[in-house]
Amino acid sequence: MITKDRFLSVVMLLIVAILLYESGNIPDKTSWQPHGSAFFPRILLYMIAGMSLLIFVKSLVIENGIKKFNLRDVEKIFDGKAKCISVFAFFGIYALLLPYFGYVIATILFMVSTQTVLMGCNTKKKIATIILTSLIFVPTIYFIFRYGLRIWLP
C-alpha cells in the first residue's frame, strides 16, 4: 500500500537520481580547486538519498507491526504550525544578519534559536546540548569549507 512516507521517499529518490545524473555535466576541477565543483552537491544528494531510504524502510517496518522506533519524540518536534513559521522567520533573520556578522556568529545564533524552538530548553541538559552542538558544528563546517574545500564563507 502506498503511504505518504513511501510516496515522499520514492519521489525524493527519483529526484536525487536525476540530479546525480545531471551532476555529471558539472565541469571538472581546476588546478586551484582541491575537489571538483560537483563534490559537495553530490555529498548532499547521497545524504538525501540515504535519509529517503531510511524513511522508506521505517514505513515498511511500522506497517509490519515492528515498532522499534520511538515516534513520540519525532512527533513532538512537528506538533505545531508556530514552530514551522518561527523557523522560517529565523532563517530570514539569519539571511539578513549573515553579511553583517559573518558566517560563524550568524550561524551560531541561528542554530541556537532554531534548536531552542524545536527542542525546547526546559532542562539544563537540553541547553548544554544546544550550545555545544552549535559551538562544535559551526566552526567545524567553517574549517571544512575554508581549508578543505577552499571556499570562502562570509
User: What number is the mean pLDDT?
Assistant: 78
H/E element sequence: HHHHH
Number of strands: 0
Integer-rounded radius of gyration: 19 Å
Structural shape: flat
Could you estimate the helical fraction of the residues in percent?
Answer: over 70%
Largest sheet: none
Number of helices: 5
> Which strand-content bin applies to the residues?
under 5%
Quote the distance from N terminus to C terminus: 47 Å
**Structural class, judged by helices and strands?**
mainly alpha
Low-pLDDT windows of residues: 69-78
What does this entry show, briefly?
This protein is mainly alpha-helical and 154 residues long. The protein has helices at residues 4-22, 39-63, 71-77, 81-119, 124-148. It starts with a helix and ends in a 6-residue tail after the last helix.
List its traits.
154 residues, mainly alpha, 75% helix
